[in-house]
Design a protein that fits this description.
Blueprint (H helix, E strand, L loop, with lengths): L6 H12 L25 H15 L17 E3 L10 E4 L2 E4 L2
Antiparallel strand pairs: 1-2, 2-3
Length: 100
């Protein structure tokens, strides 16, 4: 998870954690839009919940954390506005749903 970490550091850590070769890695970046006037409201806990929901809903093959149960906040919605590999999703009333 990249919270208060630059993209290059996160890439190096991910390559090391998963023993990847740097060639052919695809990276999708996003941002959390809570309140455009106050980005300080984006806490580490919110970033963890978003990451957990995305992993649980999309089940990436190399990521085994959070694929069976989501422990983050309820009523969280993640909208994907352009990456064909990741589905928009939400947790509503304790149930994970992929969105169109």
């Amino acid at each position: 998870m990249a919270y208060k970490q630059d993209v290059a550091d996160e890439m190096r850590q991910t390559i090391k954690d998963f023993n990847y070769n740097e060639d052919g890695i695809n990276i999708w970046l996003g941002y959390i839009n809570i309140d455009k006037s106050n980005y300080e409201r984006i806490t580490e806990e919110i970033v963890r919940d978003v990451e957990s929901l995305l992993i649980c809903a999309n089940t990436p093959s190399d990521n085994t954390q959070n694929i069976n149960n989501y422990l983050g906040r309820d009523n969280l919605k993640v909208e994907n506005l352009g990456c064909s590999k990741i589905k928009s999703c939400q947790c509503k009333n304790g149930k994970i749903q992929k969105l169109k």
